[in-house]
Write a structure and sequence with these properties.
This protein has 300 residues and is of the alpha/beta class. It has helices at residues 16-24, 41-50, 65-70, 78-97, 130-145, 168-178, 195-208, 224-234, 247-252, 267-273, 280-293; strands spanning 6-11, 29-33, 55-58, 100-106, 150-154, 184-185, 189-190, 212-215, 244-245, 261-262. The strands form three sheets. It has a six-stranded parallel β-sheet, with helices on both faces. Strands 6-9 form a two-stranded parallel sheet. It starts with 5 loop residues before the first strand and ends in a 7-residue tail after the last helix. The structure holds NADP nicotinamide-adenine-dinucleotide phosphate (NAP). Residues 11-12, 14-18, 37-39, 59-63, 82, 86, 104, 106, 135, 154-157, 165 line the site of NADP nicotinamide-adenine-dinucleotide phosphate. Belongs to the dTDP-4-dehydrorhamnose reductase family.
Length: 300
């Protein structure tokens, strides 16, 4: 029997992730844009109280990592005000109105300075990267103010779903075609997010009104270089055009700091929510099939 769709209010539906999650949850979620600047406490209280939805998803954030770094130390800057104060205002508003808050977070809440994987129950420890630091404080705001909230960490989101802005796979394919792909780091690891899997995970969190911290990421950590090679292979491009670069070289030339090892575990997330989080090759193969047939990505 077909399930009825759930009304959900959301900020940031016009962004890279929100627009694709919206496309990927059609028929499951009836998205109601929450039209508010979350830096404004009173307006946020009023808008959250007024929405007919029982669930609020926060996709809104200041996401330009380099611009954020240029604001480091400035609590009056737009990055801190959107990411930290905005999260505080939403958490307070949802707690008061009795709404289930689902907050989108990032692997950058971690410093990325140690070997091994970060598990769902670990609090963030980022200090150097200002975007990551503010997103870490956002998580703290939500845990402190809004019992029952869900925090969903994602990383380098990629997708075949339609949406605004260019996601990672499209960017790599375009740059390979134009021969403008910069050298890709071999000495960094991450666990990118397949937005099709994130969409399914969010449906589970929303329908179950689930609380806790979750990692909506693929299953095997890899380097940006390996990711680009897998993308080239999956789409039948010449993987030999992917050049190797080193984060260590970039940093020695004065580049902005990057977290080096951001491998997120997802086993507890999959078990708790009963969703499957696939590996990168499987996700890319599904995306490629979508591109070939022109049909929506189909999750098994
Ligand atoms: N993209 C990534 O690589 C990545 C990786 C890890 C985690 N994330 C997380 O995923 C979430 C979504 O990111 P995204 O890539 O979709 O970001 P995005 O493309 O930059 O979109 C951000 C959205 O937030 C809205 N917004 C910004 N400031 C706001 C404010 N003060 N009040 C209300 N809305 C505001 C923007 O609206 P306007 O366009 O009108 O300003 C836009 O719709 C964020 O929490 C981000 O930290 C993203």
């Amino acid at each position: 029997m077909k399930r009825s769709s759930v009304p959900v209010a959301a900020t940031g539906l016009g962004g890279l992730v929100g627009s694709r999650v919206r496309a990927g949850t059609a028929g499951e979620v009836d998205w109601l844009p929450l039209q508010v600047d979350i830096r404004e406490p009173d307006a946020t209280l009023t808008r959250v109280a007024a929405t007919p939805a029982d669930v609020v998803v926060n996709f809104a954030a200041f996401t330009d990592v380099s611009a954020a770094y240029a604001q480091r130390g400035r609590e009056d800057g737009p990055c801190f005000r959107t990411n930290v104060l905005g999260a505080r205002h939403l958490a307070r508003a949802c707690a008061r109105a009795g709404k289930h808050l689902v907050h989108i977070s990032t692997d950058y809440v971690f410093a990325g300075d140690r070997a091994g994987v970060y598990t769902e129950d670990e609090p963030g420890d980022a200090t150097e990267d200002w975007y990551g630091f503010t997103k870490r404080l956002a998580e703290d705001e939500i845990r402190a103010r809004c019992d029952g909230a869900a925090i969903v960490r994602i990383a380098a989101p990629f997708s075949a779903l339609p949406g605004v802005k260019e996601e990672v796979v499209g960017a790599v394919l375009r740059q390979l075609g134009e021969r403008t792909l910069p050298p890709m780091f071999v000495d960094r690891v991450f666990t990118p997010t397949c937005i099709e899997d994130l969409a399914a995970l969010l449906v589970a969190v929303i329908r179950g009104r689930v609380a806790g911290t979750f990692h909506a990421v693929t299953t095997q950590p890899l380097s940006p270089y390996d990711f680009a090679v897998l993308i080239a292979d999956a789409y039948g491009r010449d993987a030999g055009r992917v050049r190797r670069g080193e984060l260590a070289d970039y940093l020695s030339r004065g580049g902005r700091p990057y977290p080096r090892r951001l491998a997120l575990a997802n086993a507890a997330t999959g078990d708790r929510l009963g969703v499957s989080l696939r590996d990168v090759p499987t996700c890319l193969a599904a995306m490629r099939a979508t591109a070939m047939t022109g049909t929506a990505a189909c999750r098994g």
